[in-house]
Amino acid sequence: DKQFYLIGTTITSYKELKKINNNSIYLPNGVDLDRFYPNNLENEKIVVGYSGMLETYGFDKGMLNAIHEILKLMDTLNFNVVVVGGPEYKINEIKEEVKKSIHSNNFQFFDRLSQSALAEQVRRFDIGLVPYPNNKHTNLYASPLKIFEYIASGVIPLVSDLTAHKEIELNEIVFYRNGDFGHFNDVLKSLLNKEIVKNKKVKILNQIPKLSLERRTEKILELLRL
Questions:
Q1: Residue 127: strand, helix, or coil
Q2: pTM, whole model, 2 decimals?
Q3: pLDDT in tens, 180-206
Q4: Distance between CA atoms of 189 and 203, rounded to whole angstroms?
């Protein structure tokens, strides 16, 4: 059937599907821009955030290691952190770590939110984290929707340099070496400057129109009309 298409959200998945069916296309994730959009208000303190699952199928997404480095940075830098995620025991694990610190008042946690409430929290972020460590599935096939939601919300993504992450054709994503949380510390520290945040967020605004679900739908409809 000429109107049957296989869709890959990463380059690797697209290439593998192409071997099965010539009617395969690369179509990255899209975002509802009516829900995820930038907040024009400037935060009094820089806000570093994370949204989404902290673990999937038993695979840890790296946030506890990121929190350890964030707590070190808070000894000399004053910023806030918002974590929206689950499952509950994973977010509790991070909460317990933060409670040991003198910086616990700089943190906010949410475990279950509606999509609208999630978008509202993401709009508060200045820097959005995707600290995924490397495994085969994540490295080649994970195209986290949160990266697209961050950019749609005018948020700077700080992302591990996995293959699938580096394939995303969007400027202003900031990478650090996956699994190297010392390097994560260095890169995050370099971003924790209001002027740098402001300049990067202005550049991110130019990327937003590329992300819409409408554009993804148009591409599929164009193919079906051929």
A1: strand
A2: 0.94
A3: 999 999 999 999 999 999 999 999 998
A4: 20
